[in-house]
Amino acid sequence: RRSREPRFRCAQCVFLPFSFGDWILTLFRLTVPWVVKSSQLIMCKLEPTAAYDTSKLAKDEQWIEKFDLAAFTADVKRLGDELEKNQGEEDVRHLRKMVLWSNMCGIIGFLTMGFGVNPVAIIGLSTFTFTRWTMIAHHTCHGGYDKCHPNKNKWNRFKFAIGSFWRRFNDWFDWMMPEAWNVEHNNRHHYNLSEIEDPDLVENNLVDLREAPVPVIVKYLFVLINVVTWKWFYYAPNTYKELKLARLRRQNQPIPEGVNPADAVTIRTVLTSGSPFYSTWELFSVVLGPYLLIHFFLTPLPLTFIGDYFGIDNMYWSAVKNLAFAELLTNAHGFVAVVTNHAGDDMYRFREGCRPFSGSFYLRQVLASVDFAMGTDLVDFLHGFLNYQIEHHLWPSLSMRSYQKAAPLVREICAKHGVPYVKENVFWRVKKTVDIMVGTSSMKWFPESYEKKYLEIDAIAEAKKRAAK
């Protein structure tokens, strides 16, 4: 279910309309009945909330009255053009440096994973998986190196990790199918940011958890489980759903009757009620199965023979255990750096879509994104370069090095025009994100009258642009 406005509230929580509430309550009644019965824990009682008043601006929104959308747009476009024009060999050298760091983590992890369960292997393997996705695949699949990298057969959005299983295995091997992730993330998320159609809108995706009539402690336990499993439980099946949807639309085929395309598809929904877009076998054989079998069971297979040769017992199973623990850690690492980018009670939501790279588009990328600590390659590496989320959403197809250059300049532009620019510690953002997930806080809705006003300004600007051609 997806809602355009706030619907419920309790004395301490504001609830906004993911699909887990029904089984959470059943699960915990069966497994920990004392939690539900305990009178020591607070249960949330939902009541209708008052309609959202868009006629008045809050104190922290007074900047909107004097905001010049056209001037802000011109400054952002000018900076984006300059950054893109100046990309070149420096950006390629920086990419090679980050690839080297990522590969070194992988080499350390793979070389040590057969020697008992150990933190060196777990951290190395986890960091390799995390950075291969968030840094290398992410920015390449966006086209960040299309124009500046000399190797067009690999470092290009239309080549990297797609087209064959061999490319997926060599370039970016993870739970998510690269083609599916490109559709879900690069297109749907980036160009519907914090709108109803954004597939990564945390507040909407967790609506059932937010509204579940269970103690808050139960919700926190669910979030903890989600943190270490979300890539395969939610992200892989849901990105594949988006790929299937895109193919239906491209072929002008109707969406299955009774299906809401905005609803998230998870492992739970596939196993319990099935998916109208693909079978359980297709999901396993095409998306999840190859990574599960190769990464966790075939990759460590040589250690069986190495262990026998050197007389070291259990090298294979030590490796499997380390890979499993690394999987939990890399899920958590990814959650911290990815899920927190656009969630919090200081992040805005929007009712209607907008034209890509219009004034409204640029403003929304700033108001619905947050940056983290930044400034050195090591800090940025540990964040997967997702700490430049504002800059990345303004110009998705730039290099990692360009975002380092852009951040202070974007902050200056925002200060000049009075636009809030949020930059906080990533762990504080985890707290804010979890508050949204469990329903103890809610995101802000951008004032409707100004949202419509800016869309009208965009339409006029686009009409003038076309008339001038």
| Share in helix | 55-70%
Name the strands of the widest sheet in spatial order.
2-1-3
- How many helices in DSSP terms? 22
> Mean of the pLDDT scores?
90
Q: Care to count the β-strands? A: 5
Please summarize the sheet with the most strands.
Answer: 3 strands, antiparallel
Low-confidence stretches: 1-54
Distance between the termini: 43 Å
CA radius of gyration is: 23 Å
Name the structural class.
Answer: mainly alpha
Question: Could you give the order of the helices and strands?
Answer: EEHHEHHHHHHHHHHHHHHEHHHHHEH
Morphology: globular
Q: In what range is the share of β-strand residues?
A: under 5%
Protein topology:
Blueprint: E1 8-9, E2 14-15, H1 21-31, H2 33-37, E3 47-48, H3 63-66, H4 69-85, H5 89-112, H6 119-141, H7 165-171, H8 178-189, H9 202-205, H10 207-211, H11 216-227, H12 230-250, H13 267-272, H14 280-298, H15 302-310, H16 315-338, E4 348-349, H17 359-367, H18 377-382, H19 389-394, H20 400-417, H21 426-438, E5 444-445, H22 448-467
Helix pairs in contact: 4-17, 4-20, 5-6, 6-16, 8-12
